[in-house]
Write a structure and sequence with these properties.
6-stranded parallel sheet; 3 domains; single chain; alpha/beta; Rossmann fold; 20 strands
């Protein structure tokens, strides 16, 4: 934990400024950390955070780059369910945040983004790092990747706009909200008055939505169906208990998109794997089964990663029912047989109660019978218990070949990682290998940022998550390209003594680029990376490190012990660069006209 030295105050201790007001709001929200990089114009906010830290309140976490700060806030929000907060100084500090904020926008992560401006009286005078509407207009830049976006042009606006911004992060859809605050507004003195905790709590109140007519129609459809398939997207998290109970009640096979995979225990006997990017044959066959009467797509945005090409399938559209609380998502399924807008947890609990009542009344309904586990056909050992999911290359999961097969790496991680490990997977080859071959034994702990697809997201997000739950094992799976881009965020984990395990897929290439060029017939260009000893790099940064070049070194690792270390550990895993990742669905999309 960072220790703050006593501050030297140049004013009476009873005074407070508007930066303290911002911090007080965040404290009421239960926010523990604000992620950012200090700078001159944001200094009043850091002064207020220093005062808060001394009295046991929130404290700043200094990232090494502002995009890393936004990713950390995203990871913190996902882990804790609280508001993630990131900040930056004016000008380039604000523009550096944008990639992380855009990623949070697509993923509906609730972030409050605070950027500074030069003092109001300096607007239009070409001041250093000015980013007002008369210079490089950063407020305009945030417009398309936030749910709320505003400049504070007078101190009297601050509290009202701050409340509006926080409320916007919690809406449906949720996402980032941005406030641009001039330095002189942050530093302006304010009059103290009692806090209104009741008013503040209303900002986080969750409202229940339900289209009762559509729900009645859905229930009628279910009563007539004999076979149902559930397709889960990323928006199922708060309702996964009810969804699984419903699936077991009606014996519905479960498939997911690459992001929706995180909500399912992959050992559940009804789970058939991933549809779309890096998909499983078992998932494709389950969706295409002619016996299906209904396909319930739940909490999904119907993105390329899950449904590329299926929108042209009229037969599927005739069976498809889309259930979502996000109207933006429903706009992407006009071909569906029925759309049900409502809070997903409420929808499924209502369906469960209604179906059980029908069964108790003796009304003909979907048959209840024990869940059957299919016989193993993929040749993978019993220690790798996912027989209901058809893997592309099960033999590679058992291979002792050198160089190390990435499939074998994912198999060992599936078996050896602690059951409660939070696993963050970065963009690139890591996505493909983990989506297809990494299987979790718990629900809700597998995390990806596949909406915007930002490289290095997992590096920052894993650090933010570990701060939110420091006693839990946290794993970041990333590539050598991503680590070369933002690996310096490892030093944040070092400074905070966070036991994050960074698994680097080291193959000296930008793998998605190289294999994409080969599969697509493009020119082989721009994918080579120089050989890097990442274990040495990590040790130079103050972290523990292990080098893994073969199966013996991989299986010798004690992940339970590694996850208990004080501070981060980097595993520099040399994988076979010639193994082709399961990215065929992505290549089909790139090849479409």
């Amino acid at each position: 934990m960072t220790i703050f030295p006593p501050a030297v105050e140049n004013r009476p201790v009873h005074q407070s400024d508007f930066a303290d007001l911002v911090v007080e709001y965040l404290e009421q929200a239960g926010v523990e950390y604000v992620f950012g990089v200090p700078g001159g114009a944001i200094e009043p906010l850091y002064n207020a955070m220093a005062r808060s830290a001394r009295r046991g309140g929130l404290r700043p976490i200094v990232a090494r780059h502002e995009s890393g700060a936004a990713f950390m806030a995203d990871g913190y929000a996902r882990e804790t369910g609280k508001l993630g907060v990131c900040c930056s100084t004016t000008g380039p500090g604000a523009t550096n945040l944008i990639t992380g904020v855009a990623s949070a926008y697509v993923e509906n992560s609730p972030l409050l983004v605070i950027t500074a401006q030069t003092a109001l009286h300096l607007f239009g005078k070409q001041t250093l790092q000015e980013s007002s509407c008369t210079a490089i207009n950063t407020v305009a830049m945030f417009q398309s990747c936030t749910r709320y976006n505003s400049l504070i042009s007078h101190r009297g606006q601050l509290e009202g706009k701050l409340a509006s911004a926080i409320a916007a992060t919690q809406g449906v859809p949720s996402g980032p909200a941005h406030l641009s605050i001039p330095m002189d507004v942050l530093a302006a003195p304010r009059r103290l008055r009692p806090k209104s905790a009741v008013r503040f709590k209303s900002l986080f109140k969750q409202h229940t939505l339900l289209d009762s007519d559509a729900l009645t129609e859905l229930l009628e459809e279910l009563l007539q169906a004999r076979r149902i398939v559930l397709l889960l997207g990323d928006g199922c998290g708060k309702a996964i208990k009810q969804i699984i109970e419903f699936a077991e009640l009606v014996q519905a096979p479960i498939i997911s998109g690459p992001s929706g995979k995180r909500w399912v225990n992959h050992q559940h006997p009804l789970y058939r794997g991933v549809l779309g990017y890096a998909n499983h044959r078992s998932a494709r066959e389950t969706l295409a089964d002619e016996r299906n009467d209904l396909v319930l797509a739940v909490g999904t945005r119907f993105s390329e990663m899950i449904f590329s090409g299926w929108e042209d399938n009229e037969e599927l559209g005739a069976k498809l029912i889309h259930i979502d609380e996000n109207l933006e998502h429903l706009a992407y399924s006009p071909f569906a047989r029925l759309q049900v807008c409502g809070t997903i947890r409420t929808v499924f609990q209502t369906l469960i109660d209604s179906l059980r009542a029908k069964i108790n009344e003796g009304v003909h309904c979907l048959p209840l019978k024990p869940v059957a586990v299919p016989a193993r056909t993929d040749g993978v050992s019993a220690e790798f218990p996912y027989s209901q999911i058809a893997l592309n290359d099960p033999a590679a999961c058992e291979s002792d070949a050198f160089p190390l097969k990435p499939q074998r790496l994912m198999r060992e991680l599936s078996v050896q990682l602690p059951v409660d490990a939070r696993v963050f997977v970065d963009a690139g080859n890591s996505w493909a290998w983990a989506t297809h071959y990494l299987h979790m034994r718990s629900s809700g702990l597998y995390r990806v940022g596949m909406g915007y697809g930002a490289m290095t997201w997992a590096i920052g997000a894993s650090v933010g998550s570990a701060l939110g739950s420091p006693a839990s094992p946290t794993i970041c799976i990333t590539g050598d390209g991503s680590f070369l881009m933002s690996g310096q965020e490892l030093t944040v984990a070092v400074a905070e003594k966070l036991p994050v395990v960074f698994v680097i897929l080291n193959d000296s290439v930008l793998g998605m680029v190289m294999h994409g060029q080969r599969l697509g017939g493009a020119e082989p260009v721009g994918f080579e990376l120089p050989p890097v000893d990442f274990a040495q790099v990590a040790r130079a940064m103050g972290a523990a490190a292990e080098t893994v070049r073969n199966v013996a070194e991989l299986t010798a690792l004690d992940f339970t012990d590694i996850c208990r270390r004080e501070g981060p550990t980097l595993l520099d895993v040399y994988i076979d660069p010639e193994e082709v990742p399961p990215m065929g669905a992505r290549m089909k999309t790139l090849g479409r006209v």
